[in-house]
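#help-structures

NK: newbie question. if I give both the sequence and a SMILES, will the prediction place the ligand too? trying with magnesium ion
OV: yes, paste both and it writes out the complex. here, I ran yours:
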Amino acid sequence: MNGLVIRGSHSVFTVRIDGEGEERRYLECRIKGKILRGVDSYYNPLAPGDRVLVEAAGQEGRITALMERRTIFARKNQKAQGPGPGRDAQILAVNAGMVLAVTTPASPPFRPRFLDRILIQAEAAGIPALILLNKQDLWGGGEEGEEPLRDIEERLEDFLRCGYPVLRISARTGEGLGELWEKVRGGTAVLAGQSGVGKSSIINALFPQAGARVGALNQKYDRGNHTTVLGELIEIPGGPGDTGETRIIDTPGLRRFVPQGIKAEEVVLYMREFAPLAGSCAYGLSCSHRGEAGCKILEALSSGRIHRDRYDSFLRLSEELKEGWK
Ligand SMILES: Nc1nc2c(ncn2[C@@H]2O[C@H](COP(=O)(O)OP(=O)(O)O)[C@@H](O)[C@H]2O)c(=O)[nH]1
Ligand SMILES: [Mg+2]
Ligand SMILES: [Zn+2]
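OV: that's the protein plus ligand as structure tokens.
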């Protein structure tokens, strides 16, 4: 049987079996032996969005093969300690065709550096990203000490200028959801963003039945443990005129985001406005972009073509990747 991984931990996965009617069902599955090649290089062998082959084993299923992955959206997870060389690499979503980088004007406060990291990971994974500013209904109603709105506005304009589309929505009022639906329908999108920005609420707002279905799956699954380690894939049936199912992958409580599979000196290649300049520095690709004469990135910074906050993001992330975990 063919199936789609919906959610899972290290060892037990919920797989939705392909088929019509009765055939199309959810099975709790374990991986059979060590036959899944390539998964050793990650902390979690399978993630939501993976296509697998499954054989029935009583009430459960056994995963016997993993299909080729089109895209992998991962992060470094300090706590993850898998068996292979990439044991701190946690896959969040497989086969996503779009990354929805979710942020908010308030509650929690706007965190552009978190956004930068998600965008960098998306770029490295070759997945187009869209910035979703959720809780648009809170615009201007944030708590004291939160980012002044004109700063947020200015940063959003800069993201747009760099080539990242920005969509303002509210899962609460429904604002912008029609437009969001047009972007995601028929494809697979992964929602990424810090905890509390409203990822799960966005899914429920797009597909009210998702809550019930997610709840039912959760209940069943909660008998096991590790429920918060991975996210979950939600399938939204195609409506009239729709080409097919829409898939959205929800990611669990991310407090920190460190891109995976990127070397410190490669960060510039995955920042849209940096990348075209990186090779033209006087010292070429060996330029650290931190003070060398003839550095095109520093020139762009002083002329305002590169935003100071983005440069700051570049500095912090490349330092962090160089030093490794502390
Ligand atoms: N005001 C407002 N609150 C929202 C909106 N979307 C979500 N929330 C609230 O934000 C909190 C976190 O939402 P949740 O979906 O669990 O966030 P997640 O951690 O990203 O999945 C909940 O209390 C939601 O009711 C929104 O558009 N406007
Ligand atoms: Mg959530
Ligand atoms: Zn340089």
